[in-house]
Write a structure and sequence with these properties.
5% strand; 3 helices; mainly alpha; elongated; two-stranded antiparallel sheet; 2 strands
């Protein structure tokens, strides 16, 4: 559910992408998504020194936000590099 909350904004951002930016985003996703899944399911939950733990849900939310921000950055970089015709 957490990842789905951020896939919609990511998809909406990608609607603004041109072909080159979308290709870059796909290449970025090919390494980011497996790494994100490994971090969420392989590393978390992590215990804290003073007690408590960082749960997988918190890690998933943070990584999903970074995914959406990366999509925004890739699309904006593509728009800024190419002058409007």
């Amino acid at each position: 559910m957490i990842l789905g909350e951020w896939l919609l904004p990511t998809a909406l951002i990608l609607l603004l992408a041109d072909e080159r930016a979308f290709s870059r985003f796909v290449k970025f996703s090919l390494w980011y998504v497996p790494l994100m899944l490994f971090i969420i399911f392989g590393i978390f939950p992590v215990g804290l020194p003073l007690g408590g733990a960082i749960e997988s849900a918190a890690a998933a939310r943070a990584l999903a936000v970074l995914y959406a921000l990366a999509a925004l950055g890739i699309v904006l970089a593509g728009k800024l590099r190419k002058p409007a015709a």
